[in-house]
């Protein structure tokens, strides 16, 4: 009996090799190769001269292609619609990833409820939960209509038949790591199974015009488990972020063929499910201490939405040979760079001090406009001078100590005025475009030293 042919697959990127290798030549990761049976090559249709003229695809002129605005489907959640680019695109394949217990299944079940209430036929397929478990979660959310169909199955062949037989508008697959294809001789969740299962679902979505949402497990590094090619195959990749022990959740798009990848959606976990946070700035500033040093309100942009958040810093004398630097919610390397600029350009003694920086609320932001907020928070904590509660700051800081301009300054100032802030510390180069906002005093600064002197008075 002939021995079944096997190949070695990289569990990180899906690279194939006939023999085991210690380091993957594609993604340069170590010890990621696993041996799996090779998938049988599918039968090919006749090509070339064997194809009749009727069967051959005909190219279309670009001007002949019309765009129908009705191809987008409203999810009933404005935050999700924003991240998707305006709604669910017909025939799209969307991957939703996130930590266990973060609320992926809850979010998609709420979408199913909203679509079902709007009269759309929806099919929810689960490979992890029983029908009774899904029913228990659904009862907490409210009333459902008969437009929602449930199926507990992991066989892709049976799932494909169910989708084509019921012909729903939207399909939910929870999760892709539990699905298996009988034509692939490997365990569910393996590189081959995930790749082939996603390929089948992509063919269904594009061929039938059915929108499909795929739930994906994540690894300890926070990326979707399985081959990296999975993210390349789908149209949209969404990550659900946040601390599972906290109430807030942030939905972030990292890939979107139908919209921007800079938008975020903010939700709050409640007893009945996820509740949309219409004004994340107000939510992020809840509980801000009054008259405390080391606390500054900064403004960042997520797509077209300005978000105000509190930047906290704690500077204390260090007893260590190498002072500690810690950052939560932002890049530690960026914080170290800003501390060096403060010491060199503003004359602040930080080399013998422990510095802790935190973005309150647990949200993670890396926009350069946060630089000025971090700088002022560190200076405020070092000199123990509280920052006025009605002051907000934003701007990028360069290595020469200059405060550089940032985009959408007027929108940032408008958001600050809406929440009652009276003074905005911003780059001098942005002052002119933001002056048309009424009721807010503009304090333009050119250098870090000038900003620290304005804050601390010396």
From TrEMBL:
Placement of sequence motif RadA KNRFG motif: 255-259
Extract the InterPro entries matched here: AAA+_ATPase, DNA_repair_RadA, P-loop_NTPase, RecA_ATP-bd, Ribosomal_Su5_D2-typ_SF, Ribsml_uS5_D2-typ_fold_subgr, Rubredoxin_2
Respond yes or no to whether keyword DNA-binding is given for this record.
yes
Q: Where is this region: Lon-protease-like?
A: 354-458
Q: Does the keyword DNA repair apply?
A: yes
Q: Which HAMAP family match?
A: RadA_bact
Name this protein carries in UniProt: DNA repair protein RadA
